[in-house]
């Protein structure tokens, strides 16, 4: 295996150079600076005017292979995984692979040859693996055909290794770069057979990311870093009570301040200051007298929301997501019923790169530069707000400084466009402050859950009723997928069956239902979506039932999981990894388990924690994942380790509270997140069983909190049923 | 007009003196490697070296800095050859989205300048930058490996 040698070669790591500084200096002069040395700048590729082999593959005369990536890259690493899948079938030299991001206008002009660009639901790889591999295989076939035609030999007599085509019989060889232009004119093959993953040599390997080096010397231009000649900066402020209106503002009070160019009404609820720099715009916005009409939600608080949800816990109307037997009857008849209420608060995505978009509007044309997870929807939003035909618009996608689902909506594209439209011919970079980002988020929804379970005479779980009460994401975000009864996405991880989100237990009498209660706070898809709270509710309560039955939590689960071998396999792997049945934890250290299926993958975690003088320390996590196939093991490892940071940040600290109708937390000083000092050791076990393609970016987040909370119970005897943990005193047990 | 010494060059800027150094560096000097994350010195994305010490530039007004202070940004850190921290970051594929990593690298390189052989606990205590992607395990491994490299070289 040469991967290690290759990735450590000086040609890769030695590219960090003074040029990084020069790129920054270029930005200083107002140049539009893209990446500088590696990977190849996107624009430079387009300008090179090298004919593509096909939509996915461009090969330059020097044998550089450019692979087109249609899905957003926001740190999850799918850019590299997708390139590996194309390169695997292409059989090119991985060392020569670069990437280029696809723009949605181009996708539209070419009849969506790159298909869906939406990047959410852990679908970037599993949702496109087949057609990107087909793209690589087709390009290979066309390149070989081109060489064979030139030699006058049958293509079937030619072989390929690392981008070199050889005709053994005549002793001739050539490279992809030499025949790429001819290949462009060759008809794509039909009847492609993809490689068996067990024969992979590029995919399945721990390749380094293709997009790293410009992140390390500051030369990567994120949306926040865009600079253009004459560009202005806009900072908006929307009514802090969602759904409230902008009544009035006194532009004259700030219009004389240095650098201020415009004070604008953006829409019914938003005002913006446009200035020559961020700080001058912010200073003026802070000084701007604004009157809001807070509307009907001005008195809503976390307490009133909790009351609204509590009512739903026992309401008659319900939307059933999973039913077997007669749970209500069995519970009514049982003499061993356990009941508990849980709750999960609002969370902000809080990506490091705040919301931004740069838009240039003219009466003829409108363009946006910036981050989005939904490039095609962003283009539609841009054109709509611009009042221009979509043909006259383009979205220039940027690599994203974290997103976690926040940029699945496009309201900020609309906002930036409405601002730029009022400053025709001038590029306007709309940047939110962290404070605006925190109070105008698209929040992880708030829910509560009442669980009632009963044990039969043998201590088995014979009935479970799980009533979820709370907010639907899709009712706000995608009403088109709502059914007549409710939001089917509510039941992630709890569905009776299917390849996406199935429950891992067989319970004779089961009822899982939802009472939708939608407060005015705007919800969104937060990494892991509804799997997060559902896994806390179910996995912590299963632990409660095991405790009531006086049975080990692993043994208790096994009995319910006989019909769910894939769920059970990852649970067993995590348990084995932590030594659940084989080694005692160190003195004072206690263990907890959790498992769930989500986004097509099976995941489990085992945690070791200690609680001393009320202080929780998370020592070690063992995580097991079966995503079907692993395209890049070291990236999967990074996603899974990172999932614990995201999931445990929410468990420890994450909580957006509501007072006077508005979100109270405005920055990281009140919305704390996990730092390095609290990071446990995370051991990642992948057990890819093949035959299906699951996602990796999200599912593991959902087991982080319940595994730790179950360990906290083992350590303290306390059931933590409402997050975050910062509100709970673990000191006295 | 204020004078600043950034990456070994003296630059003149015409900026209100309450402007945070971060925005002077990004918008007036044009070096955008230093990032805005919070504006309240919580996240560390804006970390630069001020006379060799990791400093959060988003909450430091221009008035607090003079031409005598040596400011080094990410663009100046590996200006001649990549800093060992940058080298190691590439080798271990530390970055995910990368947005916080310039601040991480500035914090790590400052830590190693002051403490060439930090313990795990030293690193955990000193690197307080926020990463939402969750690169912490590789950050920890990266600082240790860079320390090893720099010590052996020295």
From TrEMBL, chain A:
A molecular function (GO) term: oxidoreductase activity
Ranges in a coiled coil: none
Top-level taxon in the UniProt lineage: Bacteria
InterPro entries attached to this UniProt entry: Ald_Oxase/Xan_DH_a/b (IPR000674), AldOxase/xan_DH_MoCoBD1 (IPR008274), AldOxase/xan_DH_MoCoBD2 (IPR046867), AldOxase/xan_DH_Mopterin-bd_sf (IPR037165), N-heterocyclic_Hydroxylase (IPR052516), OxRdtase_Mopterin-bd_su_IorB (IPR012368), TAT_signal (IPR006311)
Pfam families: MoCoBD_1, MoCoBD_2
Regions crossing the membrane: none
Ranges where the Aldehyde oxidase/xanthine dehydrogenase a/b hammerhead domain occurs: 217-296
PANTHER family noted in UniProt: ALDEHYDE DEHYDROGENASE (PTHR47495:SF2)
Protein name as annotated: Aldehyde dehydrogenase
Source organism: Ancylobacter defluvii
Automatic annotation (TrEMBL), chain B:
Name the record gives this protein: (2Fe-2S)-binding protein
Pfam families linked to this entry: Fer2, Fer2_2
Signal peptide: none
Keywords assigned: 2Fe-2S, Iron, Iron-sulfur, Metal-binding, Oxidoreductase
Location of the 2Fe-2S ferredoxin-type domain: 1-77
InterPro entries listed in its UniProt record: 2Fe-2S-bd, 2Fe-2S-bd_dom_sf, 2Fe-2S_ferredoxin-like_sf, 2Fe-2S_ferredoxin-type, 2Fe2S_fd_BS, Beta-grasp_dom_sf, Diverse_Oxidoreductases
Organism of this sequence: Ancylobacter defluvii
Superkingdom, taxonomy of origin: Bacteria
The keyword Transmembrane is annotated on this UniProt entry: no
GO function term, MF aspect, one: 2 iron, 2 sulfur cluster binding
Gene3D superfamilies: 3.10.20.30, [2Fe-2S]-binding domain
Keyword Phosphoprotein: no
